[in-house]
């Protein structure tokens, strides 16, 4: 079936939900050759994925993944980007996750090692001695205990190993890059999602609305980052109370200073660790701290902890400067990693 459907895609035809559901079963069970899967994915990317196709893919990815159900007070969210902006910035969403936890939120962080950037969220957690292959029940407990836990995509989406070689053959972006942030194993209904392209911003929100999401904020900066940024204005597409709205956020209007992209860029894994730790202990440059606080503020809004960016930014900056964010990191590493690595990181 996959060859026939790849042929349809090559003629610019969209697949139905049923067709995509069937082909995803073939792909995720590993019953197709890497060449066939690569051709299918390449043709799908070239045609451009329809919302129905993406929804069918998303449903199947969830069906084949491991899940957790943390029992927390308040909403459980994720803060994650699609990647692909190629700007080599430090791990903003990972730092923001600890700030959100420090401000009283709950984050089920989902991520992977870096593919196109310098350092991915998994690289950060791994550096501090966290076991990326932690079992779901262990991650569940961690979120309940610390308000933050990490789910390594390769562990929680074991069927994706059947797509790994095909994705390498394609060599560029496929639908899976887009779907990664939407397949959180805690099945979160509230999420801040950074999107690399304006084309997908509203579409992602509409797809998640069809999956009964509650509060979703899909964001991108005017200068192309898949994050909220202090370096430019930001475009936001938001789902709340079953309604989709769009807005532009000027960081200077919520009390933040205009930053430069060069202030938040990194060139090595060591830079990434240093940036991450110094943001959380409040000693990084102002742009790094404020961009993290802005993204964490988005997280507090989708968590229903704050109603406006002005209030949320005040809470997140306070979580950093009061030491609460760093305390979260320290307690997390003490219990789930190697505290010596944190001591080493402080000296970088």
TrEMBL record:
SUPFAM superfamilies given in the database record: Nucleoside phosphorylase/phosphoribosyltransferase catalytic domain, Nucleoside phosphorylase/phosphoribosyltransferase N-terminal domain
Involved pathway(s): Amino-acid biosynthesis; L-tryptophan biosynthesis; L-tryptophan from chorismate: step 2/5
GO molecular function term, any single one: anthranilate phosphoribosyltransferase activity
Keyword Transferase: yes
Highest taxon of the lineage: Archaea
Species this chain originates from: Marine Group I thaumarchaeote
Functional description taken from the UniProt entry: Catalyzes the transfer of the phosphoribosyl group of 5-phosphorylribose-1-pyrophosphate (PRPP) to anthranilate to yield N-(5'-phosphoribosyl)-anthranilate (PRA).
Annotated NCBIfam families: trpD (TIGR01245)
Residue ranges of every copy of the Glycosyl transferase family domain listed in the record: 74-325
Official protein name in the record: Anthranilate phosphoribosyltransferase
């Amino acid at each position: 079936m996959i060859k026939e459907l790849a042929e349809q895609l090559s003629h610019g035809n969209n697949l139905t939900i049923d067709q995509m559901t069937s082909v995803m079963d073939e792909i995720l069970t590993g019953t197709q050759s890497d060449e066939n899967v690569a051709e299918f994915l390449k043709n799908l990317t070239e045609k451009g994925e329809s919302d129905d196709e993406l929804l069918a893919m998303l449903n199947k990815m969830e069906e084949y993944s491991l899940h957790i159900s943390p029992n927390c007070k308040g909403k459980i969210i994720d803060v994650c980007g699609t990647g692909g902006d190629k700007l080599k910035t430090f791990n903003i969403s990972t730092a923001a996750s600890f700030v959100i936890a420090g401000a009283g939120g709950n984050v089920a962080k989902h991520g992977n090692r870096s593919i196109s950037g310098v350092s991915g969220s998994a690289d950060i957690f791994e550096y501090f001695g966290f076991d990326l292959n932690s079992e779901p029940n262990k991650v569940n407990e961690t979120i309940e205990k610390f308000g933050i836990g990490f789910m390594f995509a390769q562990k929680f989406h074991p069927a994706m190993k059947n797509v790994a070689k095909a994705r390498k053959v394609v060599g560029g972006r496929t639908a899976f890059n887009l779907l990664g942030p939407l397949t959180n194993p805690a099945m979160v209904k509230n999420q801040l999602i950074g999107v690399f392209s304006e084309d997908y911003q509203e579409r992602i929100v509409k797809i998640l609305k069809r999956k009964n999401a509650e509060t979703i904020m899909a964001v991108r900066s005017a200068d192309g980052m898949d994050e909220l940024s202090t370096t430019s204005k930001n475009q936001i597409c938001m789902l709340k109370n079953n309604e989709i709205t769009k807005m532009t956020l000027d960081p200077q209007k919520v009390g933040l200073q205009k930053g430069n992209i060069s202030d938040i860029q990194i060139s090595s894994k060591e830079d990434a660790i240093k940036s991450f730790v110094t943001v959380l202990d409040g000693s990084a440059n102002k742009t790094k701290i404020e961009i993290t606080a802005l993204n964490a503020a988005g997280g507090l809004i989708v968590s229903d902890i704050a109603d406006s960016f002005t209030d949320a930014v005040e809470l997140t900056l306070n979580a950093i400067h009061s030491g609460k964010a760093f305390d979260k990191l320290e307690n997390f590493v003490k219990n789930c990693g190697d505290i010596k690595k944190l001591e080493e990181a402080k000296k970088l």
